[in-house]
Amino acid sequence: NAEYMGTNGQCRDDMFKQWSLRFVLMFLSLNAALGDSQNECSRVLSRHARSIISEFVLPEVSARGYSLPDKCPLNPTLDKYALHEKNKRQIRVNQWQCSFCSKTFKSEYFIDRHMDNKHSHGDSLQQNSTVCLADYCDVLRCELRDRSRPAAAGCSKKEMERKRLFCQAIMNKCFPIEASSTSKFLHDKFHDAFCDTLSCGVVVQDVGALFDRGSSSKSSAYSILTIIVLVCILLFYILLYITRGLSSSGSGLKRLSATQRSYRAQLLRPAGSGGAETKKGF
Predict the structure, then answer these.
(1) Beta strands in the chain (DSSP E)
(2) Helix, strand or coil for residue 79?
(3) Rounded distance, CA 115 to CA 90, Å?
(4) What 3-state DSSP class applies to 91?
(5) Helix, strand, coil abundance in the chain, percent, nearest 5
């Protein structure tokens, strides 16, 4: 019995330790999500912004053969934490490794703190990488990727106007309209997706919907234009058919009138005139 009680007690201790560790990790993750924004630059929000740029902006920019200007805040070379993120490796669910020094950590929160404390100077950071992507979350709609944060209680038109102006400034810096036709195309595309949707009247559930909204509206416009062109072509051929029909009827009536006049002339001709001409012919 004593041995059984000892084994049972050891199991309870192990379970307690596991649940305690899980609770601590969960608490730290929640703290990272809610409290990280109070730091100089939130790593959590920066990750959301980086993922949106990597998924929706950079592929389109690359496909068009366009190079983001050096002063564009969306340029990956200016990302403050880009080198840190490249040197983090998730080995297992609860294990992360730092590629700078090979140390391992229980969660991403701990390795982020390690990066801040040990690798925030010298070669661990890219030169001139001073852009905090978290500062651009209002434009990139990071809240659509971070469901742990409570949604805003209401919508302020004045606040939305401020965000739109900020968004327009970013678009003008990254995609100057006067630079080239490609730059203008990208400016219009991303302005429609990010800036025009910053309105209290527009509600989206996912970042991808920002771009689907623009493509669907353009598709609807093209569909309406196609229908209008087809209707105009149909009306043109109907009018052409009616016009030709009237012309044919007019020509027939003219031929019929000439035949009737000739027939009337023969009827009115004197009876002897035909015989005299016959005799002269003989």
Answers:
(1) 88-92, 95-98, 104-105
(2) strand
(3) 15
(4) strand
(5) 70, 5, 25
Which of 46-60, 141-155, 176-190 has the least mean pLDDT? 141-155
Q: How far apart, in whole angstroms, are the C-alpha atoms of residue 141 and residue 210?
A: 10
Kindly report the pTM of this predicted structure: 0.62
Three-state helix/strand/coil letters over 208-268: HHHHHHHHHHHHHHHHHHHHHHHHHHHHHHHHHHHHHHHHHHHHHHHHHHHHHHHHHHHHH
Distance CA 185, CA 87 (A): 35
Structure tokens at 129: 């990488």
Residue type (1 letter), 52: I
Residues with Cβ within 8 Å of residue 114, at least 6 apart in sequence: 98, 103, 105
Place of tokens 């209290």: 200
Tokens, residue 38? 């109070």
Element (H, E) at 20: helix 2-35
- Does the pLDDT of residue 133 top 90, yes or no? yes
